[in-house]
């Protein structure tokens, strides 16, 4: 049974098994350092479709099918699917999974959506409401640019603080029991507003929320950075990662040895023109394939996985509203 810990955390006494993990991604991602960890790589970011939005739905479909297959399950064995993306009304998720006929919870946590799904999926399984739950998140560079910033055809100059939205999708199957890596705790993030209004500087908007959830987790569980092999944030990029380190240092907390950011891992920032790094729901979801495989191999035994999100929409940005941050923290331990 789950045990509430402190103000913002939950501990799962038996652990929630991560039965399988899958990922599908596009050309930029395949050319990056993590290309060898991605299950499905395509050399056409349209994925044979007529629009970027339809292409993203296809990434969703393939990632979910692959995750269920790798878990040696059929869709009849899946109790729920939790999914989300950056398109309006999570359209990529809806169109991507519509043919599976599964009970569906549509999620929106911006780029933290994969972490939100893992947290809620764990709660569903621990409660006894389901035995197998699929969690999925996706994004697409061209679809996101068109929706949140400028039409791609304009070729607008991108500032150095901007990040490159990852094209792809990642999925995981959570189950009860098992000897695979397990989710043993979660810390739910709170909305944090630093007053950032620049849609091209999302790392700065998310960093305060990341600092808040990390400090909350350490307090609730009585741990510190040295309790973990790695602490992975979702998509802060170079700007947000630097700010996170600064904010935590002000509180007497140093995570520099353990910290890695998915946005800095998925691309080669020296050779690929992604400016401050990667972003998008798929950034942490696709990078999770690498993290999971290293857990299986025993390279990591205990980690924190912290997808990060910037809460905004095109209207709020146009109206000059602040871009708020949200993060959800997942504690994962290897079971031998």
Q: Please, could you describe this protein's structure?
A:
The chain is an alpha/beta fold and 336 residues long. It has 2 domains: 2-176, Peroxisomal Thiolase, Chain A, domain 1 (3-Layer(aba) Sandwich), CATH 3.40.47.40; 182-333, 3-Layer(aba) Sandwich (Peroxisomal Thiolase, Chain A, domain 1). 33% of the residues lie in helices and 25% in strands. Strands 1, 2, 3, 4, 5, 6, 8, 9, 10, 11, 13 and 16 form a 12-stranded mixed β-sheet that branches. The chain has a two-stranded parallel ribbon with strand order 7-12. β10 (230-233), α7 and β11 form a beta-alpha-beta unit. The two termini are 21 Å apart. The mean pLDDT is 94.
Features:
336 residues; alpha/beta; Peroxisomal Thiolase, Chain A, domain 1; twelve-stranded mixed sheet; two-stranded parallel sheet; 10 helices; globular
Question: Layout of SSEs?
Answer:
Blueprint: E1 2-5, E2 9-25, H1 27-30, E3 40-41, H2 52-70, E4 80-84, H3 91-97, E5 104-106, H4 113-126, E6 132-139, H5 141-148, E7 164-165, E8 168-176, E9 182-187, H6 202-221, E10 230-233, H7 237-250, E11 259-261, H8 262-265, E12 278-279, H9 281-297, E13 302-306, E14 308-311, H10 314-318, E15 324-327, E16 329-333
Parallel strand pairs: 2-3, 4-5, 4-6, 7-12, 10-11, 10-13
Antiparallel strand pairs: 1-2, 2-8, 2-9, 6-8, 9-16, 13-16, 14-15
The total domain count is 2
Task: Return the structural class.
Answer: alpha/beta
User: Considering DSSP H and I runs of 4 or more, what fraction of the residues is helical?
Assistant: 25-40%
CATH topology of the largest domain: Peroxisomal Thiolase, Chain A, domain 1
> How would you sum up the global shape?
globular
Report the biggest beta sheet as strand number plus sense, adding barrel if it closes: 12 strands, mixed
Put simply, the count of helices is: 10
| CATH classification, class level of the largest domain | Alpha Beta
The CATH homologous superfamily of the largest domain is called: Stage V sporulation protein AD
Residue windows where pLDDT falls under 50 for at least 5 positions: none
Compute the average pLDDT.
Answer: 94
In the CATH classification, which architecture of the largest domain applies?
Answer: 3-Layer(aba) Sandwich
How many DSSP E strands? 16
Q: What's the Cα radius of gyration?
A: 18 Å
Taken as a percent bin, the fraction of beta residues is: 15-25%
Cα(first) to Cα(last) distance is: 21 Å
The ordered H/E elements are EEHEHEHEHEHEEEHEHEHEHEEHEE
């Amino acid at each position: 049974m789950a045990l509430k810990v402190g103000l913002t955390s939950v501990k799962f006494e038996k652990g929630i098994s991560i039965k399988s993990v899958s990922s599908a991604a596009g050309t930029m991602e395949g050319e990056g350092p993590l290309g060898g960890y991605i299950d499905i790589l395509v050399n056409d970011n349209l994925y044979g479709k007529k629009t970027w939005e339809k292409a993203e739905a296809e990434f969703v479909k393939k990632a979910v099918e692959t995750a269920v297959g790798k878990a040696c399950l059929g869709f009849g064995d899946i109790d729920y699917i939790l999914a989300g993306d950056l398109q309006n009304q999570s359209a990529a998720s809806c169109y991507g999974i519509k043919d599976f006929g599964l009970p569906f919870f549509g999620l929106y946590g911006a780029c933290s959506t994969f972490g939100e799904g893992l947290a809620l999926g764990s709660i569903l399984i621990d409660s006894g409401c389901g035995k197998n739950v699929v969690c999925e998140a996706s994004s697409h560079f061209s679809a996101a640019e068109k929706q949140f910033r400028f039409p791609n055809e304009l070729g607008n100059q991108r500032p150095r603080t901007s990040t490159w939205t990852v094209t792809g999708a990642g999925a995981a199957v959570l189950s009860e029991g098992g000897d695979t890596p397990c989710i043993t705790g979660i810390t739910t993030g709170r909305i944090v507003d630093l007053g950032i209004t620049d849609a091209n500087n999302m790392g700065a908007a998310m960093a305060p929320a990341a600092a808040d959830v990390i400090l909350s987790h350490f307090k609730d569980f009585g741990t510190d950075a040295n309790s973990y092999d790695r602490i992975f944030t979702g998509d802060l990029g170079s700007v947000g990662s630097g700010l996170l380190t600064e904010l935590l240092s002000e509180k007497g907390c140093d995570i520099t040895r353990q910290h890695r950011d998915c946005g800095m891992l998925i691309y080669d920032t020296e050779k690929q023109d992604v400016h401050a790094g990667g972003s998008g729901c798929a950034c942490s979801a696709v990078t999770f394939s690498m993290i999971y495989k290293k857990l299986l191999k025993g390279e990591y035994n205990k980690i924190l996985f912290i997808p990060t999100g910037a809460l905004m929409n095109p209207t709020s940005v146009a109206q000059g509203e602040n871009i708020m941050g949200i993060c959800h923290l997942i504690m994962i331990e290897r079971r031998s």
